[in-house]
Design brief:
alpha+beta; Alpha-Beta Plaits; 12 helices; Multidrug efflux transporter AcrB TolC docking domain, DN and DC subdomains; six-stranded mixed sheet
Length: 341
């Protein structure tokens, strides 16, 4: 074969030119990725045990889940973290080439075996299993230009209107809010609790019993008499919504007719759901959303899609004409800032 081309140099040059031309035409069709898929697929497991220490979380949650993960198909290793805020995070890394969807299903099936041994508080909060890369693709922040909206209001707006839209963008593996939305907070005074001879468990039980949705049924529904011509659904307002309503919860009713209410032993107010996270932009309070890339997704295409969706959402925000969005690029991440009034 080499002798054939040596004796026909013109033909060899024509073949070489055709190969070069084919390569030049193929360049625009080559895939372009800012972060090529070189890392193995990862499945992240997160759990929350409110009020527990890091040691308790490790013994009661993290260790039990780790025991069930051993032997999973394609699992290379896992790394776990248990912090003093009651949060457990386990990253299970699988062999390259493993289907992320099948890996996540396998992890979920193995976690099912450990659910019966996990604390009730953990199961109430729920276990989250997601497939996403370990590093952040971009950070989206929302702040108020005139400072009228504090971090709670901004986080509440993101939770209701923005973060779910970001999660639906193709290529987004996980979007985590680094702020706290509004929640009803009950601050118990231990001295008053002891004075009334009550316990924290009794307070929790009273709140759960008197703050729940009650199905009240219907009036005049079948079977009924022939003279009954009207039926109506009975709507009972069971869920409480204001601090005053929560303060009226009865903790104990005495034989003499007196009652001990929640406001007698605690301060009830609307505050943050959690105080673990906080974000600031140029010294100003802001709410941040960290976006992680899904395994196998294109970072450039995903970041562009997220920015496009944010531009669409900016038109529906309060006083959209005063909202200003800015995108800054860095070596390993992208940060986007939206300011509104």
């Amino acid at each position: 074969m080499p002798r054939f081309f040596i004796e026909r140099p013109v033909f060899a040059w024509v073949v070489a030119l055709f190969i070069t031309l084919a390569g030049v035409l193929a360049i625009p069709n080559l895939p372009v990725s800012q972060y090529p898929t070189v890392a193995p697929p990862t499945v992240e497991i997160s759990a929350l045990y409110p009020g527990a220490s890091a040691e308790t979380v490790d013994q009661a949650v993290t260790s039990l889940i780790e025991q069930e993960l051993n032997g999973a198909k394609g699992l290379l290793y896992y790394e776990s973290q248990s912090n003093s805020y009651g949060r457990a995070t386990i990253n299970a890394v699988f062999a390259p080439g493993t289907d992320p969807d099948l890996a996540m299903v396998g992890v979920q099936n193995r976690i099912k075996k450990a659910e019966s041994r996990l604390p009730v508080a953990v199961m109430t909060q729920g276990l989250q299993v997601e497939k996403a890369t370990s590093n952040f693709l971009m950070v989206v922040t929302l702040s108020s230009k005139d400072g009228r909206l504090n971090q709670l209001a901004l986080a509440d707006y993101i939770t209701r209107n923005i973060i779910n839209e970001i999660r639906r963008v193709p290529g987004v593996g996980k979007a985590e809010l680094y702020a706290a939305q509004r929640a009803m907070r009950v601050w118990i005074d231990p001295q008053k609790l002891v004075g009334y001879r009550l316990s924290t468990a009794e307070v929790n039980q009273a709140i759960a019993a008197q703050n729940q949705q009650v199905p009240a049924g219907m009036v005049g529904d079948q079977p009924s008499t022939d003279t009954q011509q009207i039926s109506a659904s009975v709507i009972v307002r069971g869920l409480l919504s204001t601090p005053e309503e929560f303060g009226d919860i009865i903790l104990r009713a005495n034989a003499d007719g007196s009652t001990v209410r929640l406001r007698d032993v605690a301060r009830v107010e609307v505050g943050g759901e959690t105080y673990q996270f906080g974000a600031r932009l140029n010294g100003q309070e802001t709410a941040a959303v960290a976006v992680q890339l899904a395994p196998g997704a294109n970072a450039l295409a995903t970041a562009t899609a997220v920015e496009t969706r944010l531009d669409e959402l900016s038109g529906t925000s309060p006083k959209a004409s005063s909202m200003r969005c800015r995108t800054t690029r860095r070596r390993s991440s992208r940060s986007r800032s939206c300011r509104c009034s």
